[in-house]
Specification:
Elements: H1 2-21, E1 25-35, H2 55-63, E2 66-75, E3 78-82, E4 86-88, E5 93-94, E6 101-105, E7 120-124, E8 129-132, E9 138-148, E10 153-156, E11 158-160, E12 174-182, E13 188-193, E14 196-198, E15 208-212, E16 215-220, E17 223-225, E18 229-233, E19 242-244, E20 247-258, E21 266-268, E22 271-281, E23 289-292, E24 294-305, E25 314-315, E26 321-323, E27 327-330
Parallel strand pairs: 1-2, 2-5, 2-6, 3-7, 4-9, 6-10, 7-11, 9-12, 10-13, 11-14, 12-15, 13-16, 14-17, 15-18, 16-19, 17-20, 18-20, 19-21, 20-22, 21-23, 22-24, 23-26, 24-27
Antiparallel strand pairs: 8-9, 24-25
Length: 365
């Protein structure tokens, strides 16, 4: 009897708290929403004791909130399958630089208890939106994993996969998943840090890690392994943006696409290894970009312009990439990548080997 009373009381508390999250008003305090893919339930309140199960549900809760202040979405270790896009569009909530929306793993890479298995894994499993050309012929399909429609956001410590799909079913048709998309008008300040973007072009294509439309994009201390493209800045002018301390390894597309990026783009302390293309400019080649203290080892094409989802454009003017002797370029070469899954440096450069002086990878130094 006492057990039944306890269960019923817990249920009532959970329901009441859930109702309160639907109309949350906040005047500046931090809010934390917890997720657990194994023990969570989307009818829960989202506390550490009663976590949610899915990221789309966390996004829906936040989108209904009214107020301002920091919100943290904290993901415990495990695999989060997205059967729909997790769209964060909190139109009645105000973030600012110091009071952000933070989406992160519960244990991030610099924590002493961290190891690669602690990373929260994001994988898309949703249907694709069919795309047609002007003649109504199918040219492919696409979907978004995490869609951010707001400013002042940090994404930290996640292992981000694509979607298991046959990427190119026939000539002229491309099916792809965009794991992180930053989309909207007049957006600013998105930081993506300590994330592992992982793909396999045959079994689990990761078409494009980050598709960004806004200013002050900062991508740092991330690893892009086996993806097609790492980051594309497009549509609206991306000013005051940076890409630094990243490892881009074994990619079959390009490391950086600066379609809409202004000339103040800051590219430094990056290691690019075994890339199909290094850089893709906008088709007009409007701006030149400075590269500093970085390394490019093994590539097919240095810089192209134009292109799109199905191609990489045409060769561009190499002088649009400006660098000095602190940028090491080798057409061919080998780097030592750690492949032991139990090692903290899994899918990063082995400590003490060629290239580690740039401090590129998941760990802050």
């Amino acid at each position: 009897m006492h057990k039944l009373i306890f269960i019923f009381t817990t249920f009532l508390i959970n329901v009441c708290c859930y109702a309160n999250t639907e109309r949350t008003t906040n005047l500046g305090d931090s809010i934390s929403i917890y997720l657990n893919p194994n023990t969570g339930n989307d009818q829960n309140i989202g506390s550490k004791e009663f976590p949610l199960k899915t990221l789309p549900e966390a996004a829906k809760r936040i989108n209904k909130m009214i107020g301002s202040g920091e919100i943290q979405v904290i993901l415990s270790e495990g695999t989060y399958g997205l059967n729909e896009t997790a769209t964060f569009n909190p139109t009645n909530w105000k973030f600012e630089h110091e009071k952000r929306l933070i989406i992160r793993s519960e244990i991030t890479p610099n924590h002493p208890d961290w190891n690669p298995s602690k990373m929260s894994i994001i994988i898309s499993t949703m249907p694709f939106k069919v795309e047609l050309d002007k003649a109504k012929n199918i040219t492919g399909g696409s979907n978004y994993g995490i869609e951010i429609n707001t400013s002042f956001v940090t994404i930290q410590g996640l292992r981000i996969l694509g979607e298991p799909v046959h990427e190119k079913p026939k000539e002229g048709v491309l099916v792809r998943n965009y794991p992180i998309v930053w989309e909207g008008k007049n957006l600013t300040d998105l930081k993506i840090t300590q994330c592992l973007f992982l793909g396999n072009r045959f079994a689990l294509p990761n078409h494009l890690g980050i598709l960004a439309n806004g200013s002050k994009l900062e991508v740092d201390h991330c690893v892009f392994y086996g993806v097609k493209d790492a980051v594309v800045m497009w549509n609206s002018i991306s000013s005051n943006s940076s890409f630094h301390h990243n490892l881009v390894l074994n990619i079959y597309g390009a490391a950086v696409w600066t379609w809409s990026t202004s000339s103040d783009f800051n590219f430094y302390n990056n290691v690019i290894y075994n890339a199909n293309f290094f850089w893709v400019l906008d088709k007009e080649e409007k701006y030149a970009y400075k590269i500093s203290n970085s390394m490019l080892i093994g590539f097919n094409q240095f810089v192209n312009k134009g292109g799109g989802p199905q191609d990489f454009g045409i060769p561009a003017n190499k002088s649009k990439l400006i660098y000095q002797s602190d940028f090491i370029i080798k057409k061919e070469g080998k780097l030592a990548i750690e492949e032991d899954q139990t090692n903290r440096y899994y899918l990063q450069l082995k400590p003490g080997t060629f290239g580690t002086k740039y401090n590129a990878g998941l760990f802050y130094k």
